[in-house]
Amino acid sequence: MTRWLDDQELEAWMRLVAVVELLPGVLESQLKRDSDLTHFEYVALAVLSEAPERRLRMSALGAATNATLPRLSHVVSRLEDRGLVRRVPCPADRRATNAELTDAGWALLVEAAPGHVEQVRTAVLDLLTPAQVRQLSEIGAAVLGGLDPDGARQAAMPRR
Amino acid sequence: MTRWLDDQELEAWMRLVAVVELLPGVLESQLKRDSDLTHFEYVALAVLSEAPERRLRMSALGAATNATLPRLSHVVSRLEDRGLVRRVPCPADRRATNAELTDAGWALLVEAAPGHVEQVRTAVLDLLTPAQVRQLSEIGAAVLGGLDPDGARQAAMPRR
DNA sequence: TCCGTTTGGTTGTTGCGTCAACTGAACCGC
DNA sequence: GCGGTTCAGTTGACGCAACAACCAAACGGA
Question: How far is the CA of A56 from the C1' of D2 (A)?
């Protein structure tokens, strides 16, 4: 008894799928080209940069960036190799590890942010009316409610 | 002179990023689990299934699914190994290759479709009001206009 | 008709994400 | 405090996508 999609739904879905498929590419390529960063790496650095002491537990960073721990561990290793992040064992809980943004990481982030924001504008936000931005926000909230029930997601973004 | 994001924009963007990050996962895992298909493989089979003779040139399939040719070539190779698709050299242009859906491929698609549609509903469409579905469609169109200027994208979806 | 270019596609390498397995530290009941 | 369980994180193997290099067939001009 499948409820197939009507024309409106089909159209909306097709477009959403296309966006989901294409958007990462344009974000990645700009960041890669200009700052040699993955979008995910950028977000991770950005989240760290706003944390107190620029430092966060791995699991907290994973929750904030919506990454699994294995993924995050690999990414942090790569960032650590490049000197952008440091691993600091947590004294309070010896199982835990803190990831800490280095000065080099901060500098890279500061350098990368304007170009990224510009890309976000030209690829998405500037193509929408203010009303559509609000609608997008609402729609996003509704969908996230289903995908990510506990809304741990609060990824930091290119704010100042 | 960077124009930073205001609160509305930031919120909308963060949510969009989260959706773009999380949505593929839920689609992939349902399809993988129930039909051992990637979402992209599903779309490719679906597009083929609606083509005349269930057959399409590689480049046409690539355009319709929004894939690069190298990617498509690999995917078709895997599908071919599983007997879901056949490569048929094009007699008219000996450089060209046609990808053709086999009966097994058709059967798998028919079997996979209801579960996928159900997933699409529960993960997205059923969480939105009809008005939001229309808004999403408009927003998608606007963004795609920027990403995919030539709108080659017309990915086939789980229609009937 | 011959050479250069463009088109259509395939192949190999590299890099990132996922999954499964594992280690060590903290917690819990008794 | 002792044994089992859960928690935090790391590691290694595998799969898929992107990129670059490549090959062959078609086109196009002189």
Answer: 34
Which of B6, B10, B11, B19 is the best residue to mutate to test the A interface, defined by the most A CB atoms within 10 Å of its own CB?
B19
Burial profile A39-59: b = 16 or more Cβ within 10 angstroms, e = fewer: bbbbbbbbbbeebeebbbbbe
Point out the nucleotide closest to A59 (alpha carbon to C1′).
D8
* Bridge partners (DSSP) listed for residue B97: B89
Query: Which residue, chain included where needed, has tokens 């700009």?
Result: A30
Lookup: tokens for A114? 């304007």
- The Cα B76–Cα A29 span in angstroms is 26
Tokens of A104: 């080099």
Mean pLDDT of A68-83: 96
**Which nucleotides of strand D are protein-proximal, with an atom < 7 A from a CB?**
7-12, 16-21, 24-27
Output the pTM of the full model: 0.91
Partner-chain residue, chosen from B15, B24, B148, that has the shortest CB–CB distance to A18: B148
Give per-residue pLDDT as tens, A108-123.
999 999 999 999 999 9
Residues B101-123: tens digit of each pLDDT: 999 999 999 999 999 999 999 99
Other CB atoms within a 10 A radius of the CB of residue A72 amount to 20
